[in-house]
């Protein structure tokens, strides 16, 4: 449990705004350091063989302008690719999402650190309407990205990677979900969210990611 909570504490979370082709969007932004060389981190997030070991299988035309699809239903187009420092993709989920192109983009930025480490930044900008953002706040996507960064950290450290669903159902995964939702509540407050709204959003997010056992 300790290493999982340390991984959670390693991330700096903010909520902001950005412009995407479809209009004004809100952002969830995650920043942390990985104890790995920048080329290793870049390869881990762009190599199909390595991606499937810690994230999900990916298929498609994996070059600038090409389209990709992940095993979980996420798909999009590669908008920018500047090895080993910047990757930007459109990020859609489900077949109905194709009716609203330009509404969601994910950008990953890497910078080499002074000690052979890597500064990692992920920004997800999305035009999100009712009920997602008002009900769940930034935790709607933020908790999921926290889980992704946790898996990447374990992979880069050479730890065993369990299935995402298996981890989320485990006691440590459920505690991770609760604490991640609370951390995104703090980011929401820092961005000017009303305390009552933030508290309700954290509760809704927690119930979504950590449902009562059945």
UniProtKB/TrEMBL annotation:
Recorded protein name is Activator of HSP90 ATPase
Give the organism, scientific name.
Planobispora siamensis
| Family label | Belongs to the AHA1 family.
Its domain of life?
Answer: Bacteria
Residue ranges of domain Activator of Hsp90 ATPase homologue 1/2-like C-terminal in the record: 35-132
Q: Name one Pfam family in it.
A: AHSA1
| Database matches in InterPro entries | ASHA1/2-like_C (IPR013538), START-like_dom_sf (IPR023393)
Q: What CDD domains would the database entry show?
A: SRPBCC_CalC_Aha1-like_6
């Amino acid at each position: 449990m300790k290493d999982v909570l340390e991984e959670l504490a390693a991330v700096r979370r903010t909520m902001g705004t950005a412009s995407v082709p479809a209009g004004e969007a809100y952002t969830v932004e995650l920043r942390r350091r990985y104890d790995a060389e920048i080329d290793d981190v870049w390869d881990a997030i762009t190599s199909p063989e390595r991606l499937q070991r810690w994230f999900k299988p990916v298929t498609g035309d994996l070059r600038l302008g090409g389209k990709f699809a992940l095993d979980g239903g996420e798909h999009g187009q590669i908008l920018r690719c500047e090895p080993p420092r910047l990757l930007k993709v459109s990020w859609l989920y489900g077949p109905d999402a194709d009716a609203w192109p330009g509404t969601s983009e994910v950008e990953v930025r890497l910078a080499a650190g002074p000690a052979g480490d890597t500064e990692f930044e992920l920004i997800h900008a999305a035009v999100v309407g009712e009920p997602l953002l008002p009900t769940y706040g930034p935790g709607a996507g933020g908790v999921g990205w926290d889980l992704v960064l946790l898996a990447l950290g374990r992979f880069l450290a050479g730890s065993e990677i369990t299935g995402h669903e298996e981890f989320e159902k485990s006691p440590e995964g459920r505690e991770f979900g609760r604490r991640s939702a609370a951390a995104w509540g703090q980011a929401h407050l820092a961005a000017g969210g009303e305390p009552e709204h933030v508290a309700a959003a954290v509760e809704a997010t927690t119930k979504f990611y950590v449902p009562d056992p059945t």
